Batch of 2 targets.
Target 1
Amino acid sequence: MYDIAIIGGGPAGVSAAINAKVKNKNFIWFSSKAVSEKVAKAELIKNYPGLPSVTGAELGWTFINHCESLGIAMREEVITGVYDTGGKFTLLAGDKDYEAKTVILCLGVQTVKPIEGEEEFLGRGVSYCATCDGNLYKGKTIAIFATDKIFEHEIEYLCSLAGKAYVIPLYKNANLTAANAEIIMKTPLKISGGMRVEEVIFKDGKISVDGVFVLRASVAPSTLVHGLQTEDGHISVNRKFETNIAGIFAAGDCTGRPYQYIKAAGEGNAAVHFAEEYLAGKQ
Amino acid sequence: MYDIAIIGGGPAGVSAAINAKVKNKNFIWFSSKAVSEKVAKAELIKNYPGLPSVTGAELGWTFINHCESLGIAMREEVITGVYDTGGKFTLLAGDKDYEAKTVILCLGVQTVKPIEGEEEFLGRGVSYCATCDGNLYKGKTIAIFATDKIFEHEIEYLCSLAGKAYVIPLYKNANLTAANAEIIMKTPLKISGGMRVEEVIFKDGKISVDGVFVLRASVAPSTLVHGLQTEDGHISVNRKFETNIAGIFAAGDCTGRPYQYIKAAGEGNAAVHFAEEYLAGKQ
């Protein structure tokens, strides 16, 4: 059981992890991708005080060096669900799970909207987790949406179980070896069905499926945490970075504009302070 | 007339100034002391992401270099009052005044409490400004409280006007040449009087005076801006860093805990964003 679980490898997550480490907290830190990839953008950053004129890539490496100098380990795992399990939170990452007393969400800005029907059929044919739910579809027909090449090993795994797999890569240059995989280069419009998922609908046709796997580097906040309050796509927080769920905090771009590295870093730091305050109050 | 006036030379003020400059805003920036003195503290800072392990002094110089690389000028002046003068704010600095449409207060944490009676008699014998009000006390008896050696030239100026000056330095090694100055090394307890100031009271005695000058590097927020809402000594702000007065924003330690460099820097950046939003809405 950890005191604090930090989810996200952008500036807010990095700052939260650094502060938690410096304060010698019992914490765990997850990011779906390496810090450098999360932070790296082409632009030149001129308003991060103390680092005049750095690129996103340079800032990313500076963050990595900082973390390494403190001996901070980041777990490169995608958290697909955070559940309140009675006085603590359980975080799912593939077939693994972790427990923490508080969670700090540093999810960044969602650029991908859920597909219509995705949230409606979650748990009724829609899954975010190949390793958790793959076995339910042995010999069956599935569709797999994947936003990133990093998921290809999970796609291969699903194909090894399924009878037939329609793979819908939302990225370029998909490269799969499974014989039963059919790659569809179309944008899915809707997941539909009755009690359970039955079809995936495209602009010019549809496919019948028993299940749909959605593999994304990040899950929408309200999908990740059931009942989490959001406003215009941002997680609602107060000045203590508290969400509407006691023990869950949020920091950085996911809490709203301005989308700035230094603002996110400041919030990540402060969120740890208020998580500590919350933990102290519970004792 | 400036669009934005930034008051304070700590991390929040530095970050606000850097962001305003990068965004090419029409702004002015005040600090009572050099950036390096504001930021420098003995401690080692390990949780400012991107700068692993720096001293306060090193961070201060890094900030100065950053500002210089962008050609940002900071005015080393003490702002003693901010007044709403109808759709704009007037900032007093000695015998000078400046006008701005918005103000960002980055005042840091107040370590000095006002002396009892100080706020009550402000404008009725208590003054923060030697150059503005010194002439009112020609040949009269005054007390001068000063928190810092940097005010000694103002003390000498006041002594040159007054008949008699009781100088109460709240710092060590006071060094004054004026013949009519009497240095009192006691802590003042109270300023008292009737319609106007009459006495300064110490634990073991009192002195009769016509006026009291209080020379401080920073003025308490509620004294600086009349009607500003504070709570437990911190300026009340929302997530947009808006105070209770439209057009006045606050960022950094003065808005509350945690007192952290990165948190303050993040807030200074964001406050500029919301000041811009406010200015856009007024047009």
Note: Chain B is about 25% helix and 25% strand.
Target 2
Amino acid sequence: MSAASKVRREQPDREIVVFERGRHTSYSACGMPYFIAGQVSDSDQLIARKPEVFREKQNIDVRINHEVIKIDVDNKKIEVTNIQENSTFWESYDELLIATGASPIRPDFEGIGSDGIFGLSTLQTGIDVFEYIEKHSPKKAVIVGGGYIGIEMAEALLDLDMKVTLFDMAPQVMPTMDKDMADLIAEYMQESGVNLYLNEKLDRFEVKNGTVTSVLTDQREEEAELVVLGMGVKPNAALTSGTPIETGVKGAIKVNKKLQTSVPGIWAAGDCAESYHLVKKEQTWIALGTVANKHGLVAGINLSGGPLEFPGVCGTAITKFKDLEISRTGLSEKELEESDIKYKTAVIESRTRSGYYPGSDKITVKLISEEKSGKVLGGQIVGFTGSAKRIDTIATAITAGMTAQNIVDLDLSYAPPFSPVWDPVQTAARRLV
Amino acid sequence: MSAASKVRREQPDREIVVFERGRHTSYSACGMPYFIAGQVSDSDQLIARKPEVFREKQNIDVRINHEVIKIDVDNKKIEVTNIQENSTFWESYDELLIATGASPIRPDFEGIGSDGIFGLSTLQTGIDVFEYIEKHSPKKAVIVGGGYIGIEMAEALLDLDMKVTLFDMAPQVMPTMDKDMADLIAEYMQESGVNLYLNEKLDRFEVKNGTVTSVLTDQREEEAELVVLGMGVKPNAALTSGTPIETGVKGAIKVNKKLQTSVPGIWAAGDCAESYHLVKKEQTWIALGTVANKHGLVAGINLSGGPLEFPGVCGTAITKFKDLEISRTGLSEKELEESDIKYKTAVIESRTRSGYYPGSDKITVKLISEEKSGKVLGGQIVGFTGSAKRIDTIATAITAGMTAQNIVDLDLSYAPPFSPVWDPVQTAARRLV
């Protein structure tokens, strides 16, 4: 929708048709845990713009409940199912943008299709969880997977006074962080009442009358009246099969920096498409709202004649568990261990504000630089209120190719309510020079 | 003390003598308003390290209550007054670092020397204000000057339930911001109960029995039981007079990037010394704790053999008035109007968090870029909780020479509790491309 809006602004007379298999457009998927927790009072608040607004105010022909099932590249047309009428038709195009997003991974465990087991992806899945909780008042919740969705849902379900158990087969939560930083998060989750079991593999779900009753791992059985799956996502690239549209990293649709696919006239943007990784210097696949929005803008401009390039991503991400903030950018030590790059790391503990200022709290910053050049390659932050947005300074520095000494030299802001006199990011950088 | 500590770490056997005319070392002058407001319970909390700790743990010969009054450059010695004994002696040096700081400007208005009128500079001046309030319980306070100290003291004195009146002869508060941004601050100060009078010139102080009773401007008389002067600061460079040590911008001591003065073997650092301005590309004078600390580190390394250069400053600063956060970096429109540079500005209003997330509030970002190159020259932020530290992203981008498009492309962090999907800094940048 972001691309469609951009095209409309650039080309007031162009015909724009959008097919959406669900019922909603332009919503904040990231807001779902907070809606489920009751912090956002109405799911409509998560919607930036409804289909009728696109139709009426922007003259964009949005057709919800329509799923595109096939692309005929040679004849420049697509096959579409009208889900409500259960009918199918062909629509022609001059240019096609694929923006099909990503879907939760749902491995084929016994009982995974039962009632009470949810993945989170579309707004509808969030509404489904919310309504299930309203109706059944579950008291025992199990979350499978300790990534972004897993820890955000752990916070949400604790807020709703459930007993929350989280399983992950990895030895840590938050796989995009290094274990030393993830351990700080795990510790705080346990202190806050989450029953956290790492190194445990999901085995199957116990089901009674079609509804989940417990989760079995390779080590225990845990009763569950609600199960949330946070086992990662995969790009929705099925439409490319049987076409010459190439896929790449993790099955995402291959695109160049203009977001063109391998087939002229066909573009891809958002969670279904690749991006270029500015630090790895190779194609990557990152399913995140920020990246998707930038893709939308760039695709929209290029569909209107362009040209604009999307330079790429650093892998920046942020979240929180209760008042513990978490962020990361660039490469982790884990990622670097798999490369040939020689690197140095610094992990420092500092304060979010001047130590004497009320509300000053703990922040831990990990910074990684290339041994030879001193260039900063990655950063990770775990700390209390006011910590995590500091990752933007590191992301900006990495994008600019700055060294740790360059970060030490930065003229960052300081006043007692905001920071120690050396910002924690600089304190970490000082350890690397 | 920061330089002295660095020298000690680098050269364990070097003789280091420090003369300090006051009683305290290594304290946070920026914390004084919060101590006066009662948010910091004890002035000792503002002290990072006491003289006896430097003496005992670091073998640094700190002599408090000793004022250096003369430098004999030819014979490499300084004349020192022992203030308590009222005696004078000469001390020789191999290398000399001048770190005499800055002092509040106290123009020669009638009655300005009276009891109840305070400037804020050393920790002792903060303690003096605190003790005066304890003893006299003033109910009516007048602040002269609407800069950093003025607005921080306005918050502090409102917290203490005083009637607070603030005069500034300029048409705006916060002279380092542009008027459009400063007006947002002024409006909020007035809403919060500050009697704000702009465009009013201080005339004189009414005094009774040696104590201030009212403040007269060119337009009114305002009763005052306590007056705080926030009329700016000037570098303490008097020691250079009668020596070949050159002074420069606003009378600050001229230094190169190594912090050497014009006389070999003599260095200057902190609020008494110049810095290089990375955007103006000329020498500047900025009296701020962050800059002073960096000067200390660089001077310490160079005094120990070095070499290290201090690349310069962007003019980054941050403060708050109650829950309204304020920050700036680079050049303001006001500064640019005085130059030959052609520029573009964008002022946007956005939200600190996703609009639907609890606590989401208003943030205004002003961004300025060079018309021809697109390079970002400056930024200003006024907004509620979570706004102001975003200035660090802009400061980093400016230091790296980034354009507005580069900022749009940055991979900044987003999750509903932290930001809209386009960070407000990027929303401003989008208006400039």
Note: The mean pLDDT of chain A is 96.
